[in-house]
Design a protein that fits this description.
Helix content is 61%, strand content 0%. The chain is built from nine helices and no strands. The chain has helices at 9-31, 39-51, 57-63, 66-69, 77-90, 98-113, 117-128, 131-138, 159-173.
Length: 184
């Protein structure tokens, strides 16, 4: 049995495009510091190609760490967070929960670059969610409820990343957006 954080391949393709959009918004923070390192941009391009059905999940699972490793080329915490956002976006092919990781790191990068920018980024992320993206993200377990993936008790559940994901999930849980748990 797979993790509830995986999502179906169809749902992963749906949320991969949104995750790529989130990561791309903060990519200039990384590229300003490492203009010759294309790993983060390549991760975003691959997330979009996966979303469009041009790449298969198996191949992307093997390459999912490359974009995040670009963080070593960044100088500032904001640049590093932007690279990690791209890494999370490229990881959506493997596990859908990485879409929330991409969004959380993007908001963190925006806030580190411009205090208060994280709130604006989350507002944009919520506005940019199509109905299918919302439906797919609602299928994910709440942060910290399931330990079988990135939404477990690890890195994404703490600090600014945890706060960002909780804000996104709370918005999805709002009365006008009822949460739908998959049959288990």
């Amino acid at each position: 049995m797979s993790s509830p954080q995986t999502l179906s391949e169809t749902d992963r393709r749906i949320v991969a495009a949104w995750a790529a959009d989130c990561a791309e918004r903060v990519l200039p923070l990384f590229e300003a510091e490492a203009p010759d390192d294309d790993r983060a941009r390549d991760g975003i391009v691959r997330a979009r190609a996966f979303a469009n059905g041009e790449l298969d999940a198996g191949g992307e699972i093997r390459r999912r760490f490359l974009a995040g490793r670009a963080s070593g080329a960044a100088i500032s915490p904001a640049g590093k967070a932007a690279a990690w956002s791209a890494g999370q976006a490229s990881g959506v092919a493997h596990m859908g929960a990485h879409a929330l990781g991409a969004a959380a790191y993007a908001a963190k990068a925006a806030d580190l670059a411009h205090p208060g920018g994280g709130a604006d980024e989350i507002a944009w992320q919520l506005a940019a969610m199509s109905a299918p993206v919302q439906d797919a993200l609602r299928r994910l377990p709440p942060l910290g409820e399931d330990s079988s993936g990135p939404l477990g008790a690890g890195l994404l559940a703490s600090g600014a990343l945890g706060r960002n994901i909780r804000l996104l999930q709370a918005a999805l849980d709002a009365p006008s957006r009822p949460r739908r748990h998959p049959a288990r």
